[in-house]
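dude i think i finally got it to work??
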Amino acid sequence: MKVYNLACEQNHRFEGWFGSEDDFLSQSARQLIVCPICDSVKVGKLPSAPHLNLSTAKSATAARKEVGPHSPVAAQMQKRLLDMARHVMENTEDVGEGFAEEARRIHYKEVPEHGIRGVATAEECDELADEGIDVFQLPLPALHKSTLQ
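look at this
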């Protein structure tokens, strides 16, 4: 089993598990590896170092349990992020590609104020900022494919 640290073109980082290096290369060539945040298929391996267990000291073992991707702290952070994502999904309207236009309509009081989410280009975000409309990017998992777990 090969575990690789991966990142998409937006620098969203995630882990991928493969049966072998050949499995990774085959899936990558067929664009089967997809970023869980933005659905990009432009994914590559990040540099990584092998894990060598050279220390049997109890303090080193305890330290590894307190920090790292599988630590209780990381699990709690992931739970809070997923709770926040659920809250955003449940309390906003998905306006998709029409985000910039709907944000303007709300700002200029053409429609009642309500929470929205959607997609905007960097240029559209800059234009909204120039108009005094505050927006922020919040990458959410592709929930149309699966539930937040």
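The longest strand covers residues 2-8.
im so relieved honestly
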